[in-house]
């Protein structure tokens, strides 16, 4: 994902803002990292450039 | 293997396009793309969200025509195929793939110009919830297809790896009204079911398709069609 996606992404649980933590990037593409719900504290991983915003009850990992 | 596991398996994702959209399946791919383009109109500069984008067949097509597209799906394996496809088409910059739940979208209200879902509602256990959520994040337009009850679809439905819900016109009208959407346009197609097209070679499929189109265009065409495309406006 690109950092500009942060402009529209929100927490699927309550639509509140997310905070971005980056572990690995390739130019402006964020490959690994996580999104953290500023209200819920929920952690959503970014894996192979794809943010995983499945709510916790739907995640298998 | 259960439907969701099947859909998210790596080997299924790798072979998904070649199994479904080669041979007679190409005609289905072509018709579906035409349905999307005709519903969405010129997409240059538009923000489009595709629910259940899978391997990105439509996501990539829309990006190639200048749209900024977000593809959302439950399967990382399917979207890994989509990312490759987007890169080889040179439109990686116009597409974002996101893993998420269609009933709880990670987007604000009224954000996208159009929200679409192809081949999604037949898998949906809670269609009213999904449609309401599509409506919530769309400013103007919601577009989707359904497989119809009272059609040839019924005959082979039980063969499919994932369960398949069929809809009548009344079902769709109820869903639209419940979600605050108004039907703007519709079309109906495929008297013969997809499964048949996928199994036969191109030449025969072409002839069969001509026959199919002839029946479709007669007065009972809509009633016999197995697929309907619904183009709705946000009220």
From TrEMBL, chain A:
It comes from the Archaea. Gene3D superfamilies: 2.20.25.10. This is Trm112 family protein. It holds the Pfam family Trm112p.
From TrEMBL, chain B:
It holds the Pfam family Methyltransf_25. Residues 48-140 form the Methyltransferase domain. The keyword Transferase applies. GO terms for molecular function: methyltransferase activity. InterPro entries: Methyltransf_25, SAM-dependent_MTases_sf. The keyword Transferase applies. Signal peptide: none annotated. One of its GO terms (biological process) is methylation. CDD domains: AdoMet_MTases. Keywords: Methyltransferase, Transferase. This is SAM-dependent methyltransferase. It comes from Haloprofundus marisrubri. The lineage of its organism: Archaea, Methanobacteriati, Methanobacteriota, Stenosarchaea group, Halobacteria.
